Predict the structure of Histidinol dehydrogenase.
Amino acid sequence: MNVIPAKIAGVKNITITTPTPYGIKNNIILATAGICGVNNVFTIGGAQAIASLAYGTKTIKKVDKIVGPGNFYVNYAKKKVFGDVGIDMIAGPSEILILCDKYINSDYIVMDLFSQAEHDKLSKCFLISLNEKYIDNIIKKIKKKIKFMLRKKIIKNSLNKNSLIIKANNLNEICKIINIISPEHLEICLKNSNKILNNIYNAGAIFLGKFSPEVLGDYCAGPSHVLPTSGNAKFSSCLGIYDFLKFSSIIDFSKKGLKKVFKYTYNSAFKEGLQCHALSIKYRNYNV
């Protein structure tokens, strides 16, 4: 989800970092990196990986831009090094907002909430519905199913401390709430999931209908699954090819063209009190 957009954009040297808990290397990650044409793989993670990439070490060369999601420490590190190196966005901890109604099997919704909550104890889960009985049913199933989850401690922490269930009054109110929260992942699980789509302006990725769970985005759907979190969808989009492209302005005036803009440019510089700016264009206008 990071390498392919970079490759398409023409990035020539790609480095990835990946932690190796207990010293165990993940062969799937290594194989995937090889297939995608990654140049360097380093077994390091967390804030220390960000620092190493940003400033370089004896082993790791300094890079121009760092992209990808991470936990609180990774994102704080990305904020700190921004300016010394480029970054994509603040992506993480993970979050989901699910809008659902009684026409959707509540088991689907419970597992979709769990799937995000199990990422991290700081993950955020939001549930919105118009139907109070349906909400009560979901709460009961959460309590019943959570004890069977392998990562139940993380899920409980996320749901108890960082999550919210909202009973809304109408769809207009729901749209306002969604656009304020600006979730990383938005599931719209309604009988007619397209009904409110045009009124949603702030969301990283939108999953429509009961057969489009967010987990598809984690592994196989969408251009990338590096998405803005913490309300950043108000001004950011998912990672894409454009994150690996940059542009330069090219200015090429003729003698005639310079004379056309001389008066405006000279007067603007003079009024701003920048004498040398004014003289720079004045010399050319009268001496070319």
Notes: The first helix runs from residue 3 to 9. The mean pLDDT is 95.
